[in-house]
């Protein structure tokens, strides 16, 4: 069994905001969740046309989930607080 | 990366609560003025009320309270250290603001006759007005901004105010947290409404953004006001709140109190007479937490099913709606279990306590042309409605100032210096990650500044904050988003130093836990019945000085003065 090697330490994190790719319509030009986030932590992956959490800096305040037109966004309580 | 310059008449920094109101009121005062609202996030969902608010905590409604009663209540709650004129100006304009918000479409609870359904939470008077459908308040504000044609820019992070050669305010520097472009916004008058310094202490969870306040409010406004030469006041009167443990949002006794909920110790017994947040209440909360009867809980499990459902609807759709999700994850049902509570990290916030930029009853700071409102302006216990009322004052004052003055002259060297400072973390090839510096800085804040305050610890804290000042020169940002975090670390460090220096200066204890000094345990009215002001002095050093209290405009009797010092419930002695 072989393990991957790493060049420099990268802190892993479980992110609180999950996007359901089936429902996300970022590929149609939607950016609502990215627009409303007070901390600007969401982004659109242009290659896939889907939203994702780019920075683990969440206030679990929920505008992204509430304002998403298709119900694609789910905000979990960050693991450290859960 | 480009440099973008623009010129407006009135610039409002901060699009949360006070800021939109200031911008609307400036535009209404003179529609010919060019009014720009500059926001770090997005005006639609920014600030402390991004998900709405569940009630007014300080509504002065005729028939329930008078402005004079309210001034007495807050004078007592803030242990006498208030400029009563500023509180009275709020109180006299509180009801007109409620009516205006009502006309704009904000929903307040009313009884069957159409009167506001006022509730009692404070120690003496009745000031709480529930807003069970208060979740749309940002939408209401946004409609008014569009209607009055206020210009808006989102995702611009203000870093320093521009000060003219004659000492007048001249605008702000900012950068775009997505492109890194540097902005120079020139203005005749500026309203600072950047919210609390909410990312000062580190929450017990260790999660940097799990703060009580919206963590976007990192203390940028306090830092900008300080560097522009403004006086700040009451910084040593920290904000510490009783919150749901770990979740770090309010439990919330203001909502549940009028329904019969209350704060208890582990035996299910009440230990405080009044759940209104004051330093004295927090001291009793702290005593109970650390004593044998801790921890502390919010008790709702004795209430009827329909009452609990109603409470759930309010608490799980307003202000911090993820509260319900947190309880579900822990298996906490209000019907069966009390909610475990804890005390928050420290912050600076005049909306809840008293720390802020010094303003008069027209929202004017000590810098000509600079006005301030909301959580960062020193009008004690001002809450959301106070942010709206002072937002109005600030907008109207800023409009008047812009009508009477031209643009101040600004040296080119000031622009170059700030652009170099802001871009430096992006231009460095390597260095310290902003999140690591922030974590260490805020852990030091907890270690050395969290009350009860100890002189020697605060001095050590200052040494650490000085050392971290050197680390600022090593911050490295890989993109404009990280640059935003890097520049926030600058502001947080400034706030940490302010918190330590102001606390060291006031050599007495006051405001219960907010300024409990172990080395000076007594309140000392002879020497310290004064405001402690903090500013950048002529030698560019952070310095404190005393500002005498203005004579009270509302007389207080002895009982009223002492009302908030008797919050603990003492059990009657049981006869043998």
From TrEMBL, chain A:
<dbReference type="InterPro" id="IPR017896">
    <property type="entry name" value="4Fe4S_Fe-S-bd"/>
</dbReference>
<protein>
    <submittedName>
        <fullName>Ferredoxin</fullName>
    </submittedName>
</protein>
<feature type="domain" description="4Fe-4S ferredoxin-type">
    <location>
        <begin position="15"/>
        <end position="47"/>
    </location>
</feature>
<dbReference type="Pfam" id="PF12838">
    <property type="entry name" value="Fer4_7"/>
</dbReference>
<keyword id="KW-0004">4Fe-4S</keyword>
<keyword id="KW-0411">Iron-sulfur</keyword>
<feature type="domain" description="4Fe-4S ferredoxin-type">
    <location>
        <begin position="49"/>
        <end position="78"/>
    </location>
</feature>
<keyword id="KW-0408">Iron</keyword>
<dbReference type="InterPro" id="IPR017900">
    <property type="entry name" value="4Fe4S_Fe_S_CS"/>
</dbReference>
<keyword id="KW-0479">Metal-binding</keyword>
<dbReference type="InterPro" id="IPR050157">
    <property type="entry name" value="PSI_iron-sulfur_center"/>
</dbReference>
Automatic annotation (TrEMBL), chain B:
<dbReference type="InterPro" id="IPR003953">
    <property type="entry name" value="FAD-dep_OxRdtase_2_FAD-bd"/>
</dbReference>
<protein>
    <submittedName>
        <fullName>Fumarate reductase/succinate dehydrogenase flavoprotein subunit</fullName>
    </submittedName>
</protein>
<dbReference type="InterPro" id="IPR030664">
    <property type="entry name" value="SdhA/FrdA/AprA"/>
</dbReference>
<dbReference type="InterPro" id="IPR037099">
    <property type="entry name" value="Fum_R/Succ_DH_flav-like_C_sf"/>
</dbReference>
<feature type="domain" description="Fumarate reductase/succinate dehydrogenase flavoprotein-like C-terminal">
    <location>
        <begin position="440"/>
        <end position="548"/>
    </location>
</feature>
<feature type="domain" description="FAD-dependent oxidoreductase 2 FAD-binding">
    <location>
        <begin position="9"/>
        <end position="379"/>
    </location>
</feature>
<keyword id="KW-0560">Oxidoreductase</keyword>
<dbReference type="InterPro" id="IPR036188">
    <property type="entry name" value="FAD/NAD-bd_sf"/>
</dbReference>
<dbReference type="Pfam" id="PF00890">
    <property type="entry name" value="FAD_binding_2"/>
</dbReference>
<dbReference type="Pfam" id="PF02910">
    <property type="entry name" value="Succ_DH_flav_C"/>
</dbReference>
<dbReference type="InterPro" id="IPR015939">
    <property type="entry name" value="Fum_Rdtase/Succ_DH_flav-like_C"/>
</dbReference>
<keyword id="KW-0285">Flavoprotein</keyword>
